[in-house]
Amino acid sequence: MSTPFKLVRVPSLKTVTDFRAHLQSLNLDLxxxxxxxxxxxxxxxxxxxxxxxxIGNRWAIHPMEGWDGTTSGGVTEPMIRRxxxxxxxxxxxxxxGEAMAVRPDGRANMNQLIINRENQAGxxxxxxxxxxxxxEKFGTTDDLIIGFQLTHSGRxxxxxxxxxWESRIAYRHPILDAKFNVTSDDQILTDDDLKCLVxxxxxAAKIAADIGADFVDIKHCHGYLLHEFLGAHTxxxxxxxxxxxxxxxxxxxxxxxRAVAPKLGLGVRLSxxxxxxxxxxxxxxxPAKPGPGMPEDFSHLLxxxxxxxxxxxxxxxxxxxxxxxLLKLFSDLGIDLVNLSAGSPYYNPHIQRPAAYPPSDGxxxxxxxxxxxxxxxxxxxxxxxxxxxxxxxxxxxxxxxxYLPHVAQYYLRNGHVDIVGLGRMVLSYPHMLADxxxxxxxxxxxxxxxxxxxxxxxxxxxxxxxxxxxxxxxxTFEDAPQLKAVKSGKVP
Length: 492
Ligand SMILES: Cc1cc2nc3c(=O)[nH]c(=O)nc-3n(C[C@H](O)[C@H](O)[C@H](O)COP(=O)(O)O)c2cc1C
What we know:
alpha/beta, 2 domains, two-stranded antiparallel sheet, 13 strands, 12% strand, binds flavin mononucleotide
């Protein structure tokens, strides 16, 4: 029987020297500055240029949905508050805001925002709230760019019932089908279905442009539909098999958007690589207490022809060959904003959002989460070196905790990433990098995200997302008692 891995927690590493020594003990190639730089000395406040526009600094807010819209995909008070805080963060790039479904059946949950004419005024209000909050604190929004994230959740659709998957898929997957209750070929979207889907993306982008978005993110990450199509090696027909076929959708969507909204910028959030799905080790799991992660058995599936950016001979390793072909295609299509992520929160969360404490549907760390942080950062550096003309946003930084600014500075200064994105950290400490760059230190260490994963555990149990441990608003939120009950095992 294997022994559980014992995690060294980041807050126990009191100095940069301790943190470096720990990285060295793990044999990790992750670099960082000794001090947090202040003011103009910080690479975080250096301006960037994009299509003749100035982006006022080098940190972005990643899309962070809250599972808190109305059931018709409209805007609510907690959502407005979240966008307000995004504006107050000081970030000069808002990547996506949050996932917005291009049609009702493509929602990941029944409370996901839908970008349609009915909700247009509400989404415009989110944007205006963000701009006003930013302007009040930072004086100008001329150097702030905002994109909307357009999505169809594909295999992970639950548009009507919090507990019922209504998956629409690109191809049958030998591991994920069983995990997420895909039982019939009828769930595969046909080539004709895809023609309507392309139209839905184009219409959504037109609405985004009418609202005043600077760009749209044609989301290709985290196992959602367009990401799944990139790995549709086994799908017959015009949208599967060859690389050309698997990228037909992005070419059609990009061309369609260009025709209706020529001035709208185009970006893609991409899972640059993937691993085989993981599960809690059954030998080390107890009821309501998942054990450490381990890969699902893939020995009978070699060469592995599922998913994207993965080594077919060893799907526990990434392979960037096709990722590079895709970035070349983006460059040719004028998609010049790329936000790199990895894997999926549903089937291998440790590579996507490294955490000390897993969400309720996850698994305990089986290795130091810094391994996954380092992997994401170094993949971005490799791809940035290969495609200097693209503007890259990096992900997965929140687990770095107090050392986030030190690492961000190093990779920005050395041109290994253009903009550092903040995900979970923005829910607890939205102004972290404004604070760091203004004061040369983190003045509110109590707000540092410790990756407790309540923001994921809540929605996995039908509740609204938020930072329940550290954000006062959520400490007393209506859903807080129920989350507590779920975590203590009192709710099945
Ligand atoms: C509560 C929550 C909501 C999220 N919502 C989205 C989303 O709408 N779209 C998206 O692309 N990623 C989403 N993500 C992923 C984050 O954008 C980000 O990639 C991830 O948290 C890793 O970055 P971090 O280490 O800074 O948290 C979400 C993550 C969390 C925890």
